[in-house]
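Hi F.,

I've been meaning to write this up properly since the lab meeting, where we talked about keeping a consistent format for the predictions we share between groups. The idea is simple: the sequence comes first, exactly as it goes in, then the structure tokens exactly as they come out, then a line or two of notes. No screenshots and no reformatting. I'm using this chain as the first example so we have something concrete to point to.
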Amino acid sequence: MNIFLKPLLKGICFLGLLPFIYGQSNHSYWQQHVDYKMEVDFNVENFQYEGTQELTYTNNSPEEIDKVYFHMYFNAFQPGSEMDIRLQNIADPDRRMFVDGQSRIANLKPEEIGYLRASSLKQEGIELDFSLEGTVLVAKLVKPIPSGGETTFEMKFNGQVPLQIRRSGRDSAEGVALSMVQWYPKLAEYDFEGWHADPYIGREFHGVWGDFDVKLTLDKTYVVGASGYLQNPDEIGHGYETSGKAPKKVRGKTLTWHFKAPNVHDFMWAADPEYIHDTLEMTDGPTLHFFYKNKPELLENWKNLQPKTADAMNFFNNNVGPYPYEQYSVIQGGDGGMEYAMGTLITGDRKFPSLVGVMVHELAHSWFQHVLATNELKHSWMDEGFTSFISNLCMNEVMQQNKDNPFENSYASYYGLVLSGNEQPQSTHADRYALNSAYGIAAYSKGSIFLSQLGYVIGQEKLMESLRKYYADFKFKHPTPNDIIRTAEKVSDMELDWYLIDWTQTTNTIDYSIKSIVAEGDKTKITLERIGLMPMPMDILIVYEDDSRETFYAPLRMMHGEKTNPYNSLERTVLEDWPWAYPTYEFLIDKPLNTVKAVVLDPSQLMADIDFTNNVWQKAVE
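Output, unedited:
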């Protein structure tokens, strides 16, 4: 916030976080369903594994299906893969994956690469012909699945875990042995747009809802944290015991861990022989699990992280909706932070504020992605942006940051992207951004502003009400951009299609200015100008010489509605609607010009106006 504006904006509060509860929406909708049963034998000596997979796939679509696709993600970690070639050709490669001017993938040795291969695939006992195309397996069905029908697939597969490069892998920079994400043959999603069998180039994911039943057999010295509920805790031990007794000693060198994860669209696990496993029982919430390396320098931060995780869980429960599972795990692993069903992998050797920050962000994804499961490759801003929005609010509370505008960094990043000339529409497929930086700002920062600025348009209470209704109506579904904007329309009783179109499908910018302020008899005429293409309603703050204040509000005609007064302590005058096609807008105030000290457009600074310098008029100092 500009320093000279602080006295003018003193006492103005623009955020109100109130819980609201709505019932389930009734509308036509379908989605596919798949149940997984997997048994995996893992060799910790060579990081190779063999597995069997039995899938029960239900075709809830109105079409017959005659082929299926599986994601075989680990094949991305091989020299010459699409992920590798993209790294070598993008102007700003991910620094985690690109060292000394070279792709880390390009230099992997045979024993360091990742791979995932199917040795057989059957449909209801009949062998299928299939082909492996990079990170996607394609299989033609011998028996098409009719609308409303189901079928079973049986697959034998084997894999090798790559060196930890991106999200998944072995021997991470922090010494975690196994970060097992994107590790199994995963059935691709089929929805109203058809198949989504995207190659794994480096971005996010899309999955089918279902139940997972997974048995992992590996060296008994390893401690495992995973999606789902452990079915044999008293046999496993390692901090999972429920009987209060030490587990019986198991013969041999391995243990079989049995997990069940209901109604999720992915399954992850991580393992290390040095993991400490702590649990925290919330008073009104899930059991929290924490897995982190037994290193003296980590202990204090990871112990202090645990009550903060409970605080964050309560914040999201109150402001979005109840977390629907009975446990959540925070696991040290991966290469930064990445969300998964019922848990996250985060790097753990951080300063405490950073550790809390990455936990809060990934935990927030349990709502915006692992319950509200958007197609991240097409609508990454609905996942990363909404998560950034709510996690910024959460950090402001649980870490007592007391920021006037918790989204200030998001706005600054967005303005920088606009000025760079590298912006692409948010509707761009995540893999098709020219720059990693442009993708990151579009998804995280501009995605966060979609909500914070929507709060400017419809009011903060209506925004939070919309989020809660959105969660209630679309949990365990695959919502699209239209779903969030229609929800906001229903809550606010405004037309908002213009907002969705301009903000997400174009690079139109917002730029309004105070064109002139002149005397008109004993009144003052204020003329505003729209310079940018994107329309917005206008909040105007007027400060008088006696330091009294009032606000004026010019609704946007195409909204066909008005927000309530966001500044309860100030008198507000609602002006005539401003039609977008008119580049200028005039109104009078019933006070002479010499009594006017300053005029400010959007005192909340939640409107993403790319040039705030022309939003302020101050009387010249004589």
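Notes:
Residues 544 and 596 are 5 Å apart (CA to CA).
DSSP finds eleven helices and 33 strands in the chain.

If this format works for you, I'll send the rest the same way.

G.
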